[in-house]
Write a structure and sequence with these properties.
By secondary structure, this protein is mostly helical. The protein folds into two domains: 155 residues, Helix Hairpins; 67 residues, no CATH class. The chain is 81% helix and 4% strand. It has five helices and three strands; from the N terminus they run αααββαβα. The protein has a three-stranded mixed sheet with strand order 2-1-3. Helix 1 runs antiparallel to helix 2. The protein is rod-shaped, with a radius of gyration of 41 Å. The protein starts with a helix and ends with a helix. Bound molecules: zinc ion (ZN).
Length: 242
């Protein structure tokens, strides 16, 4: 195999590995941040329900105080009834008592509503707590796993870069820009030439050019897709040597 084809083949493989590493190093932190965001949302949700519950509890206690206050007033008024001398005063006080009792009966209804709210909030909160706890443990594990992967990928990245530099140093200086250009356009840089056809783009290769590929004399690019052409013979010799 022409050594430059072999170098290009190796370079292409290393570049693919590097781009996969780069892709993962870009994506894994995003995944971690997605998990963290979701956990934060879940936590916020739970907090909202707890805040709502505190609000309702305060409401409930305010109503209870009002009821107690009214009851106290009714008790005093009822005692006062015995000391009253005039019919007019008696009637006025009775009216007051009746009014306070009516208010309390309304308040009791409200109190019941608040208690129902608390009950349903509590069952919702315990559900949210369960959900949050399971997310926290599941996502926590995922986040740890991704962090470990990132660390591992980071440790692989620099040696891989150095390996690439070593390979590039074996490449003729004029070939590297061509390689970069083909890689950018096609992804694949090498193409097998077989039966006068480039298997990279399936266009015919002029016979004279195809013969040059077979003689392994120099690097040949496909006139159509620009990929570097190699023949089956070269791959066999590579298999023998490597
Ligand atoms: Zn081609």
């Amino acid at each position: 195999m022409r050594d430059q084809i072999l170098v290009l083949d190796t370079l292409q493989r290393i570049d693919m590995e590097l781009s996969q590493l780069e892709k993962n190093l870009r994506e894994y932190p995003e995944k971690i941040s997605d998990f963290e965001k979701e956990l934060e949302t879940s936590k916020q949700n739970l907090e909202n329900f707890n805040n709502k519950k505190s609000e309702v509890l305060m409401n409930k206690s305010r109503i209870e105080q009002e009821i107690a206050h009214n009851e106290e007033m009714i008790k005093k008024a009822e005692q006062k009834l015995f000391e009253i001398k005039t019919h007019k005063e008696y009637e006025a006080l009775q009216k007051e008592i009746a009014e306070a009792k009516r208010k309390n009966s309304d308040l009791e209804e409200k109190l019941l509503e608040e208690m129902e709210k608390i009950e349903s909030l509590e069952s919702r909160i315990s559900k949210e707590e369960e959900e949050f706890a399971s997310k926290e443990s599941e996502y926590g594990e995922q986040i740890t796993a991704f962090k470990e992967k990132i660390e591992e990928l980071n440790s692989l990245y620099k040696p891989k870069k150095e390996e690439k530099e070593k390979i590039v140093s074996n490449l003729s200086a004029d070939i590297l820009p061509i390689y970069e250009r083909i890689k950018k356009r096609n992804g694949q840089v090498l193409a097998l030439a077989k039966n006068e056809v480039c298997t990279g783009c399936y266009m015919s290769i002029p016979p004279q050019l195809f013969n040059e590929v077979l003689t392994l004399a120099r690097l040949i690019q496909c006139p159509n897709c620009q990929k570097f052409l190699y023949c089956e013979e070269e791959m066999k010799s590579e298999a023998k040597t490597g």
